[in-house]
Amino acid sequence: MANKLLIKNGRVIDPSSRIDKITDVLVYNGKVVKLGKIRNSANTKIIDAKNKIVVPGIIDIHTHLREPGHEEEETIESGCKAAAAGGVTSVLCMANTHPVIDNQTAVEFILMKALNDGIVNVFPIGAVTKGSLGGELAEIGELKNAGVVAISDDGNPILNALVMRRALEYSKMFGIPVISHCEDNNLTKDGVMNEGYMSTLLGLRGIPKESEEVMVSRDIILANLTGGYLHIAHVSTKGTVELIRNAKKNGIKITAETCPHYFSLTDECVKTYDTNTKVRPPLRTKEDVEAIVQGLKDGTIDCIASDHAPHTQEEKNKEYDLAPFGMIGLETLLPVTITYLLKNKKLTLNQMITKLTSNPAKIFKLEGRGTLKPGSIADITLIDLHKEAIIEDFVSKSKNSPFLNWKLEGFPVTTIVNGKVVMDNGKIISK
Amino acid sequence: MKLKTKDLLGLEYLSKEDIELILDTAVPFKQLFTRSIKKVPTLRGKTVALLFYEPSTRTRASFELASKRLSADTLNITVASSSVVKGESLIDTGKTLEAMKSDFVIIRHSMSGAAHVLARNISSHILNAGDGFHEHPTQGLLDMYTIRDKKGKIKGLKVVIVGDIMHSRVARSNIWGLTKLGAQVTVCAPPTLIPPDIQKTGVKISYNLDEALKDADVVNVLRLQLERQKENLLPSLREYTLLYGLDKNRLLKAKKNVLILHPGPMNRGVEITSDVADGPNAVINEQVTNGIAVRMAVLYLLSGQEGVKGGERINEKEQ
């Protein structure tokens, strides 16, 4: 098979090189070779991208692939397929597996599995502390050498401020961000949804917004103290957006991500006790949704990530209090973002693509990715902005999505990873 | 008129008309209790399963009696001696009861939304007998029945609900029902036991029972769960009693004919003293009797039968 790929007549958008025009992209040996009008030649696979947009491969900086430990929920193989289905060419996977990714061997396991079974790029995130227990620091230098692109105890906050200080301080020499899951567990206690009118009506225990904001404030103060690189995961509240905006103004080294469910859903969705709406941080209110959209608009929030968190039907089909937190998101990342941010004219196409490609690549130093510059790695996503579909099933092993049966607009149609087509018109092309 | 719903999950989901229909239909059922044969054949051949995940005396006995007085067969699932202790899930237990052709499943559960989970998964009529902090609709109905029976109306009455509003399903059902029927409701508790934005349901908030009592027509005293102190929501029970306990002295500040309700079981000496609980203003035992009538009405109406209209008028005539 030809290793030459010609993507013809698409609207090519590459924020990293300020390109937005209808043209062709030539891929050879896994690299982007040329942008411009290119004639067909022999031994070249042609992809017709007419009426589609052609963008750098989507980078999802927050996923849970669950392997090792919870292969019944997702594996590296199935998670990568779900990513491909969602137009995602690279995933950053969180360290809270069983065992935790807190040592070189565990990182190597992920990378080996990804190489053997994965059809998209997998970049592991290492734990900040041993066992993600929030105590002793993990061997961050060794983790970095083994290939992690960031460190995080995501799933749990680092409650001890001294530990967080040391993590920010120590990791400075490696130039990798500390991704903070901001939550004060004492304030969250046994809360299961946003604290407010809806939790009052439903009789469910609330998680106040301040549970997130108290920790964001603390981490900003510590980032200022240490000069470390802080990245705030899954921003869900108006207060957090304001805190980050101010921190950036004050020159603190901070970046942030939010997730599609935080700009599309509110705690009203919990009304039916559908456990697919149970997520941490919880779905907030209309006011927060608006502030997050504003934060995306003005650059306070740098990235959009899925926080893909698979759980089986058995785990989820339960009383609300008993179901685990989390929702899958790899396959709805693009359609929800397009439907809620682009179609509603909240973000420009260029802004949206930036937050899904070049910003993630920049923050996590993913060389040659998040761009279509000649010489870069040929991770490319083709999107049909006008395709409408009802979300009916998932490639992921798990189905825990609040968007099931929703009609959305704007879907990926082709996913190309390292110059190879891994998804075409919804069909996954396995190894 | 018929009830347009398959299940009774909460009073939030019922219209004013639905609630009035249930209260009206309960009136003739209550009259039945004065006869020597307290039974009607209305639900003969039907099966009512009682699935109680939490301890209960009056609600469970009341539903059982209500079913029996309608000639239904009852099936008691005591969770402590059932497959639940072997790890059977709520849904599987519900499906088992459905497979046994239970026409009604009455569920009491410590978690909010448990009745919804069941209603979504099985076809039997689901009656919520209390789910977590969410709702306890038949308690709300029997409280309203009692108030209407004694006061002749609900509209315009000033009702104070005092106690742990935050963790009370009785409070929520009362709030929905009473506000729909036009009462003015005040919730009274320390700020730590008032849930956020509760005023959006149309109630007033008071931290001071003495003030709230002044012009109250009805006071519904909630049971204080003794573990709230451990959660640091209260410094001590003693202080709670000092500030929110209903005793004889406090009662003197209220209207002479104020009605005192309590859903039971009471912590005598904590939220209410015995002289008040057993005094002339209290209607706590009548609440229990009315509970059976209201639950008969609910079972009867959910089975699809025609209800009675105009109970409020019947009541006024009786007075």
Q: How would you sum up this structure, described in words?
A:
- The complex is a heterodimer of chains A (431) and B (319).
- By secondary structure, chain A is α/β, with parallel strands linked by helices.
- Chain A has two domains: 84 residues, Urease, subunit C, domain 1 (Roll); 307 residues, Metal-dependent hydrolases (TIM Barrel, Alpha-Beta Barrel), CATH 3.20.20.
- Chain A has 14 helices and 19 strands.
- Chain A starts with a strand and ends with a strand.
- In chain B, helix 1 packs across helix 11.
- The chains are: A alpha/beta (431), B alpha/beta (319).
- At the A-B interface, helix 6 of A face helix 4 of B.
Give the SSE map:
The complex is a heterodimer of chains A (431) and B (319).
Chain A: E1 4-14, E2 19-28, E3 31-36, E4 44-48, E5 53-56, E6 58-63, H1 76-85, E7 88-93, H2 104-117, E8 121-124, H3 140-146, E9 151-152, H4 161-171, E10 178-180, H5 185-188, E11 193-194, H6 197-202, E12 206-207, H7 209-226, E13 230-232, H8 238-249, E14 254-258, H9 260-264, H10 286-297, E15 303-304, H11 313-316, H12 333-342, H13 349-356, H14 358-363, E16 380-390, E17 407-417, E18 420-424, E19 427-428
Parallel strand pairs in A: 1-4, 1-5, 6-7, 7-8, 9-10, 10-13, 11-12, 13-14, 14-15
Antiparallel strand pairs in A: 1-2, 2-3, 5-16, 16-17, 17-18, 18-19
Chain B: H1 16-32, E1 47-52, H2 58-69, E2 73-78, H3 90-99, E3 104-109, H4 114-121, E4 125-131, H5 137-151, E5 158-162, H6 169-180, E6 184-188, E7 204-206, H7 209-213, E8 218-221, H8 237-244, H9 248-251, E9 259-261, H10 274-277, H11 284-302, H12 311-318
Parallel strand pairs in B: 1-2, 1-3, 3-4, 5-6, 5-8, 6-7, 8-9
Helix pairs in contact in B: 1-5, 1-11, 1-12, 2-11, 3-4, 5-6, 5-11
